[in-house]
Amino acid sequence: MKNLLSAADLNREAAIEILDIAEEMAGVNHRDIKKLPTLRGKTVVNLFFEDSTRTRISFELAEKRLSADVINFTAKGSSVSKGESLKDTAQTLEAMGADAVVIRHSASGAAYKLAHSGWINGSIINAGDGTHEHPTQALLDAFTMRKRIHGDSSLGKDLDGVNVAIVGDILHSRVARSNLILLNTLGAQVHFIAPPTLLPANLSRLSAELHYSLDDAIESENLDVVMMLRIQTERMNASYFPSEREYSRIWGFNAQRLAKLKSSAIVMHPGPMNRGLEIDAISADSPQSTVLEQVTNGVSVRMAVLYALLSGERNTNAN
Questions:
Q1: Which end of the chain is more exposed for a tag (fewer CB within 10 A), N or C?
Q2: Which residues bind carbamoyl phosphate (predicted)?
Q3: Is 185 annotated as a binding residue?
């Protein structure tokens, strides 16, 4: 595999392989010296046309822990702000000898365009393209679920039979799309819970069970995972729900709903969180919350993706 553009690029075996490599990388991240020489001599460019904190820093840390040379490129303050096209930017990076480009862009399909245009020969990793996909987020979410469910015996395991509820702004969420694809690949049952206005139009093509009531789903579906999504007001050009107060009352996750979950269930959020809107502070900070674990696991998973695409060798010397 040269590129990671979509969660659909991964079959079950490939997904489990990356999750297993991430387990090894997690061991590296707990060392006093958190470095592997795996990508020494490789140049990785982080090409971010959208603002990001968790994803950009996570990729940068992963690259540095694998000893790659890292170039951080942001649209603000670059030639892009002067009108330079994606093509010209890509060809500039190619001339600089980039071995891989991690791209985040507001346009759906930007990563695919970069990978198949011939402008650049290095590997392309999609770090989020518009409302389309965010495959490494889905991988780190699956890694977090697997760790919580299977514990130390998670190597080689999938998520067969796990009930996952994804709640909120599914219409605008690339995280929801990538998670749906990857979780189906790993054997999980996915439930989408949202107001009708925040569900995509092609419902018949979705391999997910649909619910319009969070309370009903909690009571009837024996959920193992509840993943809350951020309300993406920056992508909304109309009113999708009556008010924030009304949304929080019907679809927000709170202490009362947390109490109804089984004790082994986990609560997830890809961040950044709108506390008090899609999730309250008690739930976000509870022992059942994996919000900070997801951030930590993101480094290990992105190390695994970079390793899989760029190293060509399975032996990490991680033990």
A1: C
A2: 54-55, 104, 134, 137, 271-272
A3: no
Task: pLDDT band for 312, please (50, 70, 90 cuts).
Answer: low
pLDDT, tens only, 243-258 = 888 889 999 999 999 9
Q: What is the largest CA-CA distance in the chain?
A: 57
196 is in an annotated binding site: no
pLDDT at res. 235: 62
Mean pLDDT, rounded, of the chain = 91
Which structure tokens are listed for 24? 């090894």
User: Does residue 237 have a pLDDT over 80?
Assistant: no
Per-domain residue ranges for the chain?
7-133+295-310, 135-289
Say if residue 54 carries a ligand binding annotation: yes
CB neighbourhood size of 228 (10 A):
28
270 in a known ligand binding site = no
CATH superfamily of 7-133+295-310: Aspartate/ornithine carbamoyltransferase (3.40.50.1370)
Q: Is 272 marked within a binding site?
A: yes
| Annotated binding residue 205 | no
Say which residues have a Cβ less than 8 Å from residue 130's Cβ, sequence separation at least 6: 105, 106, 107, 108, 109, 110, 174
Q: Is 82 annotated as a binding residue?
A: yes
CB-based burial label for 312 (10 Å; 0-12, 13-18, 19+): exposed
Read out DSSP for 43-65?
EEEEEESS--SHHHHHHHHHHHH
CATH code 3.30.70.260 for 135-289:
no
The answer to whether the annotation marks 174 as part of a ligand binding site is yes
Same fold flag, 7-133+295-310 and 135-289 = yes
Residues 73-127 pLDDT 10s? 877 655 555 456 888 889 988 998 999 999 999 999 999 999 999 999 999 999 9
> Do residues 241 and 195 lie in contact, with contact meaning Cβ atoms separated by under 8 Å?
yes
- Is 276 among the annotated ligand-binding positions? no
Supply the pLDDT for residue 85.
84
- Whether 231 contacts 169, CB under 8 Å: yes
